Amino acid sequence: MREGVNKVTLRLFEHNEKAYHAAVRMMEQYGKAAIVHPTGTGKSYIAFKLIEDNPEKVVIWLSPSEYIFKTQLESLKKNDPGFPLSNVHFYTYAKLMCCTQAQLEKIAAQKPAYIILDEFHRAGAECWGESTVALLKLCPEAKLLGLTATNIRYLDNNRDMAEELFDGHTASDMTLGEAVVRGILPAPKYVTTVYQYQKALAKYQARVDNLRTPGIQDANQKYLDALRRALEQADGLDRVFAHHITNKSGKYIVFCANKEHMDEMVSHVPEWFAGVNPDVVVYEAYSDDPNTDKAFADFKTDTSDRLKLLFCIDMLNEGVHVEGISGVILFRPTISPIIYKQQIGRALTAGDNTTPLILDVVNNFEGLTSISGLQGEMQEAVHRLYANGEGDRIVTERFEVIEQVHDCRVLFEQLQASLSSGWEHYFSEASIYYAEHGNLNVPKLYTTPGGLSLGVWLVTQRRVREGQIQGILTEQQIQRLDSIGMVWGNRKEIAWQHGFEVAKKYHDTYGNLMVPGKYVNPDGYPLGQWIIKTRQQKLNGRLKEERIAQLDEIGMVWNIFDAKWEKAYALAAAYYEENGNLNIPRSYVTAAGERLGQWVESQQWAYPKGKLTDEQVERLSRIGMYWGNRNDRKWNEGYQEAKRYFDAHGDLNVPAEYVSPGGYNLGNWVKRQRYTRQNPEKSGAVLTEERIAKLDAIGMRWGKADSRLRRLELSQESKRKSENLNVSAKHKTGEDIGLCS
């Protein structure tokens, strides 16, 4: 019992209990441990158990969003309202990204014993990763626990975040398929169908039209026409939903691609769901909507007889679980396996004995085979458990899959096979690529004009030869590939070398490696993204020294923000050398078009906010940077213009309309200083004794009491210059004195 609480301590599911103890041992030995368990298995409770077992120790919990952490706490508090959380400090990855170095140091000063990285694959994002790694470096004594449903960033060059952040120390790794096989998650009823397939048909029509051989083109056109007819005869979504959604008052989460897509799907609700239940209530949840919290809460508590649909975009993909879900409906384009499994997982809950419904509604033919990945994981888990003598742990080996468009899938696979027919066909395309480029450094996702996935095919040839996958590759075929420049080495090594060669070519052309993030070279290589990933690898300590040296030789910029600052600083230093100060008007632009005035002002703004390093402050001070407030800076700018006038003319008799060569209205400024001193109660400006003294030192004349005497002096001076006094009656000097008054 916990003291003062009529509850027993947290009890984990068996699979989580085992993972927890493995993680504790691993953290004791290596200081870090990752746990990779699928959505719905309750892995957040592993972290709560760590907190419970260490009530006196400080814990920092990092998460993608406050919303995820909030819902995890709600679930925890239902089971244990008195759970101790006073020593837990929560931050989002986005919050860390906005922190200055000083703020990160303040967080680290809490001296955490543990840091929990929830959904740690998200820390691989460039915008979040740098600040996360910086915090970890500031907390070298803290033990690291990571939780995620997948450690692989599939759309980010398959980066393994368990390797990058935890050095491969994974305490427990369980696939979604294994969780279903072992009965940890319930086996779903899985229904596949298609909608809005016209764009997909058009894409394959273009591939067929681009085929160069008439006989092959005719054969593929027949497959495509048969697929089109089968799709036209398939059941509509209204009939599919009416047949398979048997819980007429159930709760279903409907995943959409974006807000526009969600609005379109919601508009079809009366048409598609009336056959299920004419009384339908629609809730909408997406991260930018301020009403999301209320909609989500209302959905969870709705116990009416209505059919309840929660349409959402991104926020329920990860970290959030809803009890009592009857199923999920996936309205989806092609997406990463991470998101696909997270969305499926919303319908699966550990300890739930019901059979959830998954309706996979795709708008592309490739999506019809997505479930095969989950089925493959299940088969692999079954074989491994039997091989390890753990067959008694197998609860189910398969689940029900209903293909509403089975014939369409078969026809599509036949079309795919026909379009990709034959080793010779691919070799011919590889030979063409070699003739055009002089090498076979083909990007993995490269597709030929005829629609063949040449990049994937070449990767397959390498894997077959290395014995990584089954296949036949004869010595003759190997020799033929060698003749057109095939490189058989490690794919990652080849990919890096190719990226380096593209980077070197960019440097040779432009003289630098300041590559925009979205830059793609004329051959379609995403060099901007390669540069970003390479910087991240160095930051994480995962870039070999020899590669760092290679990139240094061609001018690699490791910190893009430092490089831009140094460039602007050099311009500011040049201005100081020429002018003796850094009092630059905000509108000032250099001859090369650089907005130096704005940059100087931005540094003055950043200084009081602590966004400049001590070194930067010291260097800027050395070249005359003025750090006062905005009004001080404005006054000082005018004073510097006045001083330049005094140095050039020997006085401060500035004509009222005078504008300096740099565009500064000095005449008006001098007149305003005089007015401020003479009328302090009427002027909104401030003229301190220090400012008055500085103006006195450069010849400022303040009053008009001696104007007649001054007119005489000016008249005599004018006579000396012009030998006559033919002065206009309206003429005034720079001191606003009329000579003919």
UniProtKB/TrEMBL annotation:
Region (Disordered): 720-741
Any one Gene Ontology molecular-function term assigned to this protein's record: helicase activity
Species of the source: Faecalibacterium prausnitzii
Superkingdom classification of source: Bacteria
Identification of the protein by name: Helicase
Domain Helicase ATP-binding: 24-169
Residues covered by the Helicase C-terminal domain: 236-389
SMART domains, sorted: DEXDc, HELICc
Annotated keywords: ATP-binding, Helicase, Hydrolase, Nucleotide-binding
